[in-house]
Amino acid sequence: MGLEFAKTLALFVATALAEIAGCYLPWLWLKKDGSAWLLLPAVLCLALFAWLLSLHPQAAGRVYAAYGGVYIGAALAWLWLVDGLKPSPWDLAGAAVALCGMALIMLQPQRG
Known about the structure:
Blueprint: H1 2-31, H2 39-54, H3 60-81, H4 89-106
Helix pairs in contact: 1-2, 1-3, 3-4
């Protein structure tokens, strides 16, 4: 189960980075006077995001629910690494709770 969980987590992290980049690029265009050409890689990132979500073998709703926990952690990492703002202890505690929720959803015993 450990290897499967690691693979699932890595796929979720890649998915989160694709989604965040796909949303960050239009934000740069709209808020930071970036080039409209930023929209092209944004669309590609969001298409990659949707495709990556489809690679999970679990039911879509369960995948989307669990993915939310990983997205929170990835967004806070982006805040620190890209925006240069260190997450607060409250941010980190919230991400830990969200990641625990993701693990509960994804590691539940399989039925039938």
